[in-house]
Design goal:
The protein is an alpha+beta fold. The protein has 10 helices and 10 strands. It is 45% helix and 20% strand. It has a 5-stranded antiparallel sheet with strand order 2-1-10-9-8. It has a 3-stranded antiparallel sheet with strand order 3-7-6. Strands 4-5 form a two-stranded antiparallel sheet.
Amino acid sequence: MNIRCLILPALLLALSFNLSAENSISLQLADYIAGKDARIGVAAIIDGRDTVEVNGSKDFPMLSVYKFPQAIATARLCAEKSMAFTDTVEISASELHDNTWSPLRDKYGKRDLRLPVAELLAYTMQQSDNNACDILFRLTGGPEAADSVIKSMGYHDINIATTEDDMHRDIYLCYLNRATPLEMARLLEHFDRELRDDSPEFMEIARLMETCATGTDRLAAPLTDAGVILGHKTGTGDINTQGRIIAINDAGYVRIDGQHRYSIAVFIADSAYDFATTSAMIADISEIVYRGVTK
């Protein structure tokens, strides 16, 4: 018997299974999102080939999820400056702003400091520190430089435009730092499959994402006892003048038993619900995708 006669049906069966699983996840996501009083966008890339999405090509405010592409840009811009993550950075007391989320400031107080780049990245990626984020922007040329790096990599639907301090002064500037769920999922997929092993700096970023301390009630919630590896970055917004949460976000990659993996971005903007309920919606979406991949 011609071996091609055996291989072709097997390939068609595998393709049929993949399409069926992909359609099932998409339908479940669409059904879950329908009727919610918020703008919700979801995209997941499964095993590097299957994509599921709902509102995946629409723009959403990233909030602190933008610290993930910022970290990638920081690694590349530091390399251009021949600066290692172990090199130290001078920090003035005036950069440690009050009235913003900053475990860095809470630990060291408002005083002049010298800290390694790696520690600043740890504060941004693990604890979403806003002051550390802006110090890294200052070190590498500002949001414009980070945006240029990301766009040079081909990710034109990720826009880095303002600092954390800018957004603190005017919360509507949060909407300028925006991305589509599909583009963020693409960047996460690229990072997990290729970039992370390119350099010690990227490996360190992956380690920080996989030990992220924020948003345990979001993507991580249904995965806690699943024995998977989750690397992710969260984003949390303030209440806008319409009484809605600007955004609650989570985006990351999931590795399952060395066999399956997927990247996922969930953006929820202008939510009429409270923070706990909005975060729980991300957890529900995370579970839908995880169950669909592993069933």
